[in-house]
Design brief:
335 residues; Isopropylmalate Dehydrogenase; 11 strands; alpha/beta
Length: 335
Amino acid sequence: MNNPIIIAIDAMGGDNSPKKVIEGIHLHSKTSENIKYKIFGNQNLIKPLIKKYNLLDEKYELIHTEKFVEGEDTALSAAKKGKDTSLWLAIETLKKDEADAIVSAGNTGALFLISKINLKMIENIDKPALSALWPSKSGMNVVLDLGANIECNSKNLVDFSIMGSALHKALFNNDLPKVALLNIGSEELKGNAMIKETFQHLNENKYSLFEFKGYIEGNNIMEGKVDVIIADGFTGNIALKTAEGTSNFIIAELKRALSSSIVGKISSLINYFNLKNFKKKLDPRLYNGAILLGLDKPVIKSHGSTDSIGFANSLKVCEKTIRGNLIKQIKENIN
């Protein structure tokens, strides 16, 4: 058997941790093979949970620390807490080549800063980008940047195109992902100077890793006609938060409409399976696991408020990035 994939896990970050983390590991371990988890956190809290969920001894290693980064910490104050927090120790294992990737549901700013302190950038990449999965009619899109960089130049967007395409190939085994730039229109003349310059470069230079499809507007993101959508962090973050808010609004209003009258309740019973599939399509737990691209090891951010199912899905995303040789593909194509 090949050497196991080793995932370093900050067990203390996020809401309801470490319970959701250990339960998430339990759920992930039932569907994955040849995985080992390096779990960092307070053993007094974690050991009873390991016993409860019956994790096999050979599946994990528990590294005890009582210090952890809290949600209200700034990135700088989190880094100043020292090198013995669960987050720092987990990231440090990547630096020492003792783990293949890290997953944390904790403080986003702290995760990014401590990762950048400990890990190297991939050569020729200037800025890391935060990428996440986005549901579409035909499956899943990869969207980046979602907030790591407020200001970008055209080279950054080209780099994001390469990294996003490598991620899509790693996750979905797509031979030639279709890439588009998020813009205010689909015509070549639309957009600011940075977008136009990026368009011109990608249009004139053919990349073996992806097929460039031009611009895409916000209302077409979920059409499924492209696989990778590129934006600067300011635009991408607004698009993400708008989509999340719209999704939550639709689910809440649908639930209210179907429970506010006898007719609505009867309708919900008749359409039970259709409504269940609709809700599942919009369930954010199934798309949990944002990835900080550009560093020489995969850094996965699980949503802080997710539950064990969401955390298990972030572990699955992590596993796929490793099995799909994400970092190797980026390195081979970035030049």
